[in-house]
Amino acid sequence: MNVRRRLIPTAALAGTVTLGMVALSACSSSDTTGKSGDGKLAVTASFYPMEYLARQIGGDHVSVTTLTKPGVEPHDLELKPRQAAQLGEADVILYLKGIQPAVDKAIDQSGAKTVVDATTLTTLENHGTATGHDHGHDDDHADEAEHGHDEAEHGHEESETDGKDPHIWLDPVRFAEVAKGVGASLEKADPDNAAAYKKNTSALVTKLDGLNTSFKEGLASTATRTFITTHAAFGYLAERYGLEQEAIAGIDPESEPSPARVKELETIAKRDKVTTVFFETLASDKTARTVAGDSGLTTDVLDPIEGITDKTKGRDYIEVMRSNLAALRTALGAK
Q1: Which of 33, 80, 200, 247 would bridge 232 by S-S if both were Cys, CB 3.0 to 4.6 A apart?
Q2: Closest listed residue to residue 317, CA positions, set 331, 304, 300, 330
């Protein structure tokens, strides 16, 4: 999810769908989608958050293939014709519409037996289309709160999710809702193992509930409620825990942020006592360091968890989220 994202012309995007994509995940259970040789339910996940759900809920009864290789920026993924054709052989495809336009189009044409779009399993919100203050809310269901999330500047086609923010997995509560929906889908696709899927779903939801409690308690009392990040992926998280996300949107990591934006961030940082500019593991930290240097701030990682690599602060979703919590507590001056 990242600063590298650029708006993809529609014509170019259409060509991309049929022309290419990186190899399937090195940590996949198989190199192709479709029925696995051991008789397990063949599940194809679009990128890491969906893979995590498939593995946690499916357990020993599924064979999971992930389309996005560890370390690859999900939005840059392109699908090879062979891989697009193989999507139709999967028993279940699990994806999140609006994150990977090329994958979305290939799935629409795949004819797969069971296709699960995670965005349909919870409530999406429009977190705004302009760079600016993200107003966090204590109300878990605040409507249409502005969070400074610029979909266009991140290369997301608004038509994919009607301009709504797709980063639902960064809110443990919404991710738990998605987990329940995924569990139900696996039960329907493989009724012989429904009891196992139900049990695994319950266990995962319990872990996500615990994560939510940790965030709620850990961020209850802080010196500031504002954080600055190069990637406006944390609108749902900010809303859930009453924080304000200030994103440096629309800036390529290879270029310097505009003087006007840096000046604005300096004003915000002083006013809200911001200490840190966050960047992520799958993108350059150049922008964050530029803004931090100009504003006299420090830098740290706030991971949108689009992939797990050897640089990731944690081995899985839960561990990385707890690392994010620790980073936020430090940056916000939690008591």
Answers
A1: 247
A2: 304
Would you place residue 14 in the very low, low, confident or very high pLDDT band (cuts 50, 70, 90)?
very low
How much is the average pLDDT of 111-118? 92
| pLDDT at residue number 251 | 39
Q: What does the mean pLDDT of the chain come to?
A: 80
DSSP string over 182-250: HHHHHHHH-GGGHHHHHHHHHHHHHHHHHHHHHHHHHTSSBS--EEEESS---HHHHHHTT-EEEE-TT
d(CA 42, CA 18): 23
Q: How many whole angstroms separate alpha carbon 44 and alpha carbon 101?
A: 16
Whole-number Å distance between alpha carbons of 238 and 142: 12
Chain-centre distance of CA 31, in angstroms?
A: 24
Q: 180-184 long-range CB contacts below 8 Å, 24 or more apart?
A: 180/121, 180/205, 181/116, 181/118, 181/120, 181/121, 181/122, 182/53, 182/54, 182/57, 182/94, 182/116, 182/118, 182/121, 183/57
Half-sphere exposure of 188 (CA within 13 A, CB side): 11
Q: Taking Cα atoms as reference points, which of 241, 281, 246 lies closest to residue 48?
A: 281
pLDDT digits (tens, 9 = 90+) for 201-223: 999 999 999 999 999 999 999 99
| pLDDT in the model for residue 257 | 67
Asked whether the beta carbons of 226 and 247 are under 8 A apart, the reply is no
* Contacts for 167 with CB less than 8 Å, ≥ 6 apart: 1, 149, 233, 234, 235, 236, 304
Residue recorded with tokens 């803004």:
291
> What percent of the chain is predicted at pLDDT more than 70?
76
Measure the CA–CA gap between 291 and 299, rounded to whole angstroms: 9
Under 8 Å between Cβ of 36 and 173: no
37-112-189 Cα angle (round to 5): 65
Phi-psi domain of 151 (left: phi exceeds 0; alpha: psi -120 through 50; beta: other): alpha
Beta carbons of 292 and 298 less than 8 angstroms apart: yes
